[in-house]
């Protein structure tokens, strides 16, 4: 089913009493507050909520640094992965992208937006490093190394 603006819905009926787009609901800060309250009500941990907040603030800084309006109507697709230029590890970039995927997916599912600007944005490929496994002889010598005659916690 096609909607105004060329977005397609997933065939779900709209939640009654909600207007999908108006001036305040187009604002990313407003949408994030809704998202955050949804995640609080779902019982997300304080650590997860803090991570959502930090990653969203980083995204807002990204938009500001590139003079991109903080409006859902102005974001077509978050692209480019220019986080790399600030020296962040690939795993951190991917974590921040995950937060944005969850955020936009949630507000789309709640019918605050018609399309998801994160659709198609993929994680960066992470380098895989081989882990060197120690052999049995080295393991035995490591286990034998401590002085087993003295234990500080025992009297």
TrEMBL record:
<dbReference type="InterPro" id="IPR010998">
    <property type="entry name" value="Integrase_recombinase_N"/>
</dbReference>
<dbReference type="InterPro" id="IPR011010">
    <property type="entry name" value="DNA_brk_join_enz"/>
</dbReference>
<keyword id="KW-0238">DNA-binding</keyword>
<feature type="compositionally biased region" description="Basic residues">
    <location>
        <begin position="9"/>
        <end position="18"/>
    </location>
</feature>
<feature type="region of interest" description="Disordered">
    <location>
        <begin position="1"/>
        <end position="23"/>
    </location>
</feature>
<dbReference type="GO" id="GO:0003677">
    <property type="term" value="F:DNA binding"/>
</dbReference>
<protein>
    <recommendedName>
        <fullName>Core-binding (CB) domain-containing protein</fullName>
    </recommendedName>
</protein>
